[in-house]
Amino acid sequence: MDQEVLVNQLQKFAKRLEKKEGPLTLLMLLAPDLETEDAWNLIVSAKSLDRKSRGSAVRQFTQWLRQDVDPAQWTGIARATVLRTDDPFVRAINHAFQAKGAAMSLQSWSASGVEIPKAILIESKGQLTQR
């Protein structure tokens, strides 16, 4: 799995999604360990998803992914997680990092008690979170 291709696709997806649904607060790929390259947890947080139940938000987000991301890239995403914009993890990431339009790699980091062995931050917009 070429993670650069996946990241590029997700960056384009983020831009299109923001035009249709409003700003993303966080979009990141999180790996379960340092070696994993093909079983990412795709984490998203957006105000437009806050208004939905968790199940509805996940279904909506995965529907958007299926519409906009090349099916060949789906195999790299093992799961999708939707977090509220006021979630402590989202707030911690957005407080520490700001990634707008340029992916940022993270390794061996912790956010709000969650260990991050390896991640790729695609969008992180600290100014959009409530503090």
Describe this structure in words.
With 131 residues, the protein is α+β, with helices and mostly antiparallel strands. It has five helices and five strands. The chain has helices at residues 3-21, 47-50, 54-68, 71-74, 88-96; strands at 24-31, 40-46, 77-82, 99-111, 114-124. A five-stranded mixed β-sheet has the order 3-2-1-5-4. It is globular. It starts with a helix and ends in a 7-residue tail after the last strand.
Going by helix content, strand content and strand pairing, the class is: alpha+beta
Separate helix tally:
5
Rounded average pLDDT: 87
Helical proportion, percent range: 25-40%
Largest sheet: 5 strands, mixed
Specify Rg, calculated over alpha carbons: 13 Å
Which regions are unreliable across 5 or more consecutive residues at pLDDT < 50?
Answer: none
- Termini separation (Å)? 37 Å
Please indicate the percent range of residues in DSSP E strands (runs of 2 or more).
Answer: 25-35%
| Widest sheet, order of strands | 3-2-1-5-4
Question: What's the structural blueprint in terms of helices and strands?
Answer:
Layout: H1 3-21, E1 24-31, E2 40-46, H2 47-50, H3 54-68, H4 71-74, E3 77-82, H5 88-96, E4 99-111, E5 114-124
Parallel strand pairs: 2-3
Antiparallel strand pairs: 1-2, 1-5, 4-5
What's this entry about, in short?
The protein is of the alpha+beta class. 39% of the residues lie in helices and 34% in strands. The chain is built from five helices and five strands; from the N terminus they run H-E-E-H-H-H-E-H-E-E.
